TrEMBL record, chain A:
GO terms for molecular function: mRNA 3'-UTR AU-rich region binding. GO terms for cellular component: cytoplasmic exosome (RNase complex); nuclear exosome (RNase complex); nucleolus; ribosome. SUPFAM superfamilies: Ribonuclease PH domain 2-like, Ribosomal protein S5 domain 2-like. This is Exosome complex component RRP45. It comes from Cladorrhinum samala. Belongs to the RNase PH family. Pfam families: RNase_PH, RNase_PH_C. InterPro entries: ExoRNase_PH_dom1 (IPR001247), ExoRNase_PH_dom2 (IPR015847), ExoRNase_PH_dom2_sf (IPR036345), Exosome_comp_Rrp42_subfam (IPR050590), PNPase/RNase_PH_dom_sf (IPR027408), Ribosomal_Su5_D2-typ_SF (IPR020568), Rrp45 (IPR033100). It is found in: Cytoplasm; Nucleus, Nucleolus.
UniProtKB/TrEMBL annotation, chain B:
Belongs to the RNase PH family. Pfam families: RNase_PH (PF01138). InterPro entries: ExoRNase_PH_dom1, ExoRNase_PH_dom2_sf, PNPase/RNase_PH_dom_sf, Ribosomal_Su5_D2-typ_SF, RNase_PH. Residues 22-165 form the Exoribonuclease phosphorolytic domain. It comes from Cladorrhinum samala. CDD domains: RNase_PH_RRP41. GO terms for molecular function: RNA binding. One of its GO terms (biological process) is nuclear mRNA surveillance. Residues 57-79 are annotated as: Disordered. This is 3' exoribonuclease family, domain 1-domain-containing protein. One of its GO terms (cellular component) is cytoplasmic exosome (RNase complex). Residues 62-79 have a biased composition (Gly residues).
Amino acid sequence: MPREVEPSLNEKQFVLQALQENLRLDGREIDQYRPLELTFGDQYGVADVTLGKTRVLAKASAEVTVPYTDRPLDGIFTIATELSPMTSPAFELNRPTETEVLLSRLLEKTVRRSNALDTESLCLIAGQKCWSVRVDVHVLSHDGNLIDAACFAVVAALRHFRKPDTSMEGGVLTVYTPAEREPVPLSWLHSPFCITWSFFGDQGEIALLDATWVEEQIRVASCTISLNRHGEICQIAKLGGTPVDAVALLQCSGVALTKAKEFSTYLDGKLAEDTKKRNKGGLLAELSAENDR
Amino acid sequence: MPLDTSTYNLALLRVDGRRWNELRRINAQIRTQAAADGSSYLEMGHTKVMCVVTGPSEPGPRRGGVVGSAGGAGGGGGQSKDAEVVVNIVIAGFSSVDRKRRGRGDKRTLEMQSTVANALAASLHIHLFPHSQINVSLHVLSQDGSLLAALINAATLACVDAGIPMTDYVAACTAGSTSTYAANDESADPLLDMNHQEEQELPGLTVATMGDSDRVVALVCESRVQISRLEGMLVVGVDGCKQVREILDRVVREKGRRMIDEGTVEKGTGLNDMDVD
């Protein structure tokens, strides 16, 4: 199994020394994110998120299937993550590394277990037909903080996604094509965002947001907090590593909340912008009988 | 929800009759397997866990198969300058009520393995054992909530038994909060050490701290909870960890005393200042 190249001793010391003096290699503040950029694809449900040099593409899709027998009233919702060798030579196909397992677990806990998507609304005929919504996460480039970028991409893709409209008449289920009826958005309950803190120093006393890949390789511990803008924590994961003071963790969660609110406003703005672009002139323009002569 | 915890407000007693700040009975033993380097058995209420530690030893052929790869801090292959902590968790089929079969690749188990490994690595002096591997294998015999906490505690005890140098005990326990996330009342009480029923219904988190300090090694929360509740839950959890640490320490000292009494070990010079008996 090929291994990631570690930063050299000099590089490590340089980064650490700079951090002790409150400086980061790229000149950011301690709690500043790299420029976050979100672009939607031409299709519904494609979100491309870049965070500095980290780039993640998420694509949502839906199909009609049979629900699980133990949950006849729920639809199916899966998040599939794939770290391909394109991202880094340390990742191999069909052999999930620890990074990949933890990433998919975190996304699962953040988005799926927190009931961000109402799976009951995906049920079409109880026990027979339901929607299966699937989000594929592709990591195109890895320069640290994969988790935050991937989570943002998944939430953006799902909120942008439209599934075909359906109707039930006399026990007959009809799925309409986009030409027949405008596709409908998913029933979305809240938008959770992951915010990852990285800790440095012997006592874990330096806390950073949005670590780059070099910083990530040097950090002694990390803590991912997922919350929505209402201040509801969906998940916290500090999975071992150097111990960090409990009070510091509480402060981190406070800052994380403001960041989650910023993400939320940014995403809402982008979604509104996209809707406007797709819907030129709105319903009035569509209903108007006027023609250009 | 099948269980009704709304009665808590009437008597301030939980479903199993505890007060909010009471731990369940913790019963632990160390050196349960004679053949192993270190071993322990731990019960937190009805959660029962067994742990066996082998090592520090030469990395086995399973992971050390790749020769000539560059040394890395977190990497396998035994080429690193730190010892590698490898944790393996087996959840017995009969451990819970519904007898669910969990495969080897179950992500929840993999996540717990990595959490236990990283939490232990924070306390163990792994830099003393380059090119080696510490194998921790955990067996879950019975589950009744606070599984991760029990696993961490059992692993700590087994490492103590194995005589691997470590900074302090890594003690873990869970904390929860009455009433679910939807009810936004300020009067919600924090709860210590949740059992399976409470875990199903109430928000909660697992905390692991380093010894007597307030420093958090692991913090895992998997349920939706208001951010304002976090502080209360964390305080109660950290306090519970200190109680757990006392219990673990008592277990170790008790075993040491008995071994001296039995004559298995000589009473060392350093032991004079210890309260033996």
